[in-house]
Design brief:
Elements (H helix, E strand, L loop, with lengths): L3 E5 L3 H12 L2 E2 L10 H9 L4 E6 L5 H8 L7 E6 L2 E13 L1 H8 L10 E14 H7 L11 E4 L1 H10 L13 H10 L8 H19 L4 E3 L6 E3 L3 E5 L8 H5 L5 E5 L3 H6 L3 E4 L2 E4 L7 H10 L11 H8 L6
Parallel strand pairs: 1-4
Antiparallel strand pairs: 1-7, 2-3, 3-6, 4-5, 5-6, 8-9, 10-11, 12-13
Bound molecules: zinc ion (ZN).
Protein name: HNH endonuclease
Organism: Natronospira proteinivora
Length: 324
């Protein structure tokens, strides 16, 4: 599940660093310290536009901040604070310990120490939330002073993450196959979701997403067939997730497919389209919009490359709409 990191820009050095690499994105291909390395390659997959925003864990007592940085995971939320207000939020996409990169980005600190802990963020959004409100929601003293950089664990962070809908639907924690197998057996469809329940679903989503998109810059939408950057695609359960049995979930190679957020997700969830015998089928119900009709006509009959192995899940979905 999602943790929250406080990043304070209280002093002029941290403000300067934030200005340099967070408010103004850096051009990845211009970073000499990582050129030609695996790091550059991985970042190019995450940021196909070549521009990335980077957070600095640098000022203050390096040892303490490093320990905080080590708690971070992909998908965690960073709240950026100045003047007692959270003014930005971002999602952690990539973490790397690399003194050369840190030095290139921000230089040595005022004590001549070389920083090394770097985190990249995406989905940066403007916020306007008093720190006292965040503190209260997280069970801290209202006047709790934010240190340079501090990570708060899942349970404490949950009210803020869900209250302000800060979770990413693209970046998830990294989940191993063993952990996935374990958590899907603990998903209980008969009980209301508590924090642990949410956490399991998030891990489930993260694992499925990695299965479909790991290492890929673009992938094909299972419905329209267009190839999009993976940020425009979701790893969708073919059979509605709330109807999936544990056995369905363990069949992770077949239970999900990529669907684009540029229309197909909505069409599939609202039962305007499905896949029958490997081909996209569209609803036979009345469609009042001429524009929507023309989209459906274009989709009709496309071959879905994710059909093989997933027939029974598509069959389940097909029953929800009027396709015959
Ligand atoms: Zn699509």
């Amino acid at each position: 599940m999602t943790k929250i990191a406080f990043q304070s820009a209280a002093d002029s050095d941290s403000r300067e660093n934030l200005e340099k690499t967070l408010l103004n994105p850096v051009v990845l291909s211009e970073l000499e310290s990582i050129r030609g390395t695996g790091i550059a390659e991985e970042l190019a997959n995450i940021y196909p536009g070549d521009m990335a925003r980077v957070g600095a864990v640098k000022q203050g007592k390096e040892g303490e901040q490093k320990a905080e940085w080590e708690k971070l995971q992909r998908g965690d939320v960073v709240l950026f604070m100045r003047d007692d207000m959270v003014f930005l939020s971002g999602i952690v996409t990539y973490l790397v310990k690399n003194p050369d990169l840190a030095r290139e980005l921000w230089g040595d600190d005022e004590r001549g120490h070389t920083p090394e802990c770097v985190y990249f963020v995406d989905e940066v959004k403007d916020q306007f939330i008093p720190c006292s409100t965040i503190n209260r929601m997280m069970g801290l003293e209202e006047t709790y002073p934010w240190p340079g950089f501090q990570v708060h664990l899942e349970d404490v962070s949950a009210p803020v993450v869900y209250g302000y809908q800060l979770e990413s639907h693209v970046y998830f924690p990294i989940v191993s196959e063993d952990e996935y197998k374990e958590i899907v057996q603990e998903i209980d469809r008969t009980r209301p979701l508590d924090t642990k329940g949410w956490s399991r679903l998030r891990k489930e989503d993260g694992f499925l997403r990695d299965q479909l998109f790991r290492g890929k810059v673009v992938e094909e939408c299972g419905i329209c067939g267009n190839k999009y950057p993976t940020q425009f695609l979701i790893a969708a359960h073919i059979k509605d997730r709330w109807h999936c049995t544990t056995e369905d979930r363990l069949d992770y190679q077949n239970i999900a497919m990529p669907i684009c957020k540029l229309g197909c997700e909505e069409l599939y969830r609202r039962n305007y389209v499905t896949v029958i015998d490997e081909r996209v089928a569209v609803t036979k119900a009345r469609v009042d919009s001429k524009d929507l009709k023309s989209i459906l006509v274009r989709l009709q009959g496309r071959v879905c490359p994710w059909f093989k192995g997933s027939r029974k899940y598509f069959d389940w979905h097909t029953r929800l709409g009027k396709y015959f």
